[in-house]
Every structure is written in structure tokens, then in C-alpha cells.
Amino acid sequence: MNEGIGTHIDAPAHCIPGGKTIDELNLNDLLAPCLVIDVSAKAHERYSVTVADIEVFEEKYGLIKPGSFIIVRTGWEKFWSEPEKYRGNLVYPCVSVDAAQFLLKRDIAGLGIDTLSPDRPDEGFPVHTTLLSAGKYIVENIANSANLPPVGFYSLALPIKIQGGTEAPVRLIAIGE
Fold first, then answer.
1. Measured distance CA(162)–CA(61) in Å, rounded
2. How many domains does the chain have?
3. What is the spatial distance between Cα 80 and Cα 78, in angstroms, rounded to a whole number?
4. Computed over its alpha carbons, how large is the radius of gyration of the chain?
5. Residue 113 lies in a domain
6. How far apart are CA 131 and CA 2, in angstroms?
7. CA–CA separation, 4 and 10 (whole Å)
8. What is the pLDDT of residue 89?
9. What does DSSP assign to residue 25?
10. Is residue 172 part of a domain?
11. Which residues of the chain have pLDDT under 50?
């Protein structure tokens, strides 16, 4: 089985030599207050989440607290049953490196997104490098984020504990407050 199949988690070692592997992730970091930043009303295949998107969210819901897990909802999951559209020749909504750096200043636990990746391959992998080099984790291909409120719950990421793994399938659970 491929480690990066379906909803899965990337550990720092996925891109960072010497970074933590899946089996070294701390369960306390995988249970976190969770926020959903919804950009689905404006996201398109070349959309990149901006610092302004995060600031609009914070104006409405308050500053992102340290240790939070952030889910970016682009609405792209609607194409899950259409693999060619979902994969889109590897063109899909993502996150700007400026937004990733801004989230690091908020000391997030990790970042999730409802697309293949927070990066588009044609742009390199700056979001992966930024977050994973800071010891954070990334969850990709998140389903059902439309069913979650913007705030007021926790997420628990439960990866298959693959010794030395850099990625792993994950069960991502939302827990109400």
C-alpha cells in the first residue's frame, strides 16, 4: 500500500532529512483545537490561500491560538468521485507560502487541506518545506470539511504508525467541544 493514499499525513521527514517520522509524531500534537478556513466560495483551480484570507477569518473568529490544527476548505472535495478533475493534471487550489509562514507565526500544530496537497507541483513544494522544517505536519485529501463548523471543536489525526514512514494513511476525527 502506498503511504500517501487517500486522506494521509505527511511527517516532517517527508521533505526534511532527519525530520520526525510518522512513528515519532507526538499524539499530543495530533489532538488539537481545530479551525476551518473556508475559501470555497472563491477557490478555483489556480487559487492560493492568502494571508488576507486568514486575516478575514481571524477578524470574524479571533486570533488563531497556538497549537491549533488548521483545515483549509477549498471545496475541491466535490470532485473526489471524478478522479481526472480532482487530480486536474496536478492543478488545484493550494496555500501560498506567505500564508504558511503566517500560520507558523501563530504556532499551529499542523495544516490540512481538501486537495492533493497544499502545494502545486509546478511551483515546487514551498509550503511543505516551510511547515515540515518547523516540525509541523500536513494532512491531505481531507473529506467532509463542509460538515464542520469554523471553530469550536478538536481534531484527532490517527495515522497508521509506520516505523520510519514519512507519510501514512490517517483517520481524521472531529470532536465537538
1. 36
2. 1
3. 6
4. 15
5. yes
6. 22
7. 8
8. 83
9. S
10. no
11. none
At 72 the pLDDT is 98
Do 11 and 45 touch, CB atoms closer than 8 A? no
Taking the CB of residue 24, how many other CB atoms lie within 10 A of it?
14
- Which triple of cell numbers denotes residue 145? 470539511
CA 134, 173, 116, 114 torsion: positive or negative?
A: negative
Range of the domain at 44: 8-161
Length in residues, the chain: 177
State the pLDDT at residue 30.
96
Taking the model in full, what pTM does it have? Answer: 0.95
Is 88 within the bounds of a domain? Answer: yes
Query: Going by DSSP bridges, is the β-strand pair 31-38/153-159 parallel, antiparallel, or unpaired?
Result: antiparallel
Nearest to 87 by CA among 125, 141, 37: 141
For helices 126-133 and 97-105, give the axis angle rounded to 10 degrees.
20
Residues paired with residue 71 on neighbouring β-strands, in sequence order:
36, 112
According to the model, what pLDDT value does residue 2 have? 67
H/E stretch holding 87 reads: helix 83-87
pLDDT in tens, 78-122: 998 888 888 878 899 999 999 999 999 999 999 999 999 999 988
